[in-house]
Amino acid sequence: MPAKIRLQRHGRKRYAYYHIVIADSRAPRDGSNIERIGSYNPNTNPATIDLDFDKALTWLANGAQPTDTVRAILSYKGVMYKKHLLGGVAKGAFTAEEAEAKFEAWVAEKANKVQAKKDGLVVSSESSKKAQLEMEAKKSAERANAIAKRNAEAAAAAKAASEPAVEEVAEEAAPEETEG
After folding, report:
1. Beta-carbon contacts of residue 78 (< 8 Å; ≥ 6 apart)
2. Residue 115 and residue 109: Cα distance in Å, rounded?
3. Which of 9, 10, 74, 132 would staple 79 via disulfide (CB 3.0–4.6 Å)?
4. Domains of the chain
5. pLDDT tens digits, one per residue of 115-126
């Protein structure tokens, strides 16, 4: 029975998450599986991957073939690198301790990269929020200035409209004084 490590779709429309499963290659995508070894949620940034490292490594060593996407996930988590190192130990290229040291160094470097990406996302999110707030404050100030200008013009127009009436009354009163 040819075993495959593949994704099994779950979730609702346009919001899928996946189980990483070991299944017979002839079984349907969402059909029966032999074992579930993890989950993958691409809806978060960065994507959330929960994987049983030891089971994945065991199944790879026993000949299970991962699909392209699962191969990328396993590479991201270091399962493929660990398998590669174990192959080197089996061939006698280096010792198991050296392989473990190389793998630990790789895991530490990977953790730093992931943390840097998360920190970068937080910083960019905060800076975009700050820029948005500044832009909204600028627009609000422009609107307030426009309203104040409009109100000042209306007040000036009302004052100008009331002044000619006073002048007309003064002009009407002035000719009566000269006649008498």
Report:
1. 53, 103, 106, 107, 110
2. 10
3. 74
4. 3-93 (3.30.1320.10)
5. 998 888 888 888
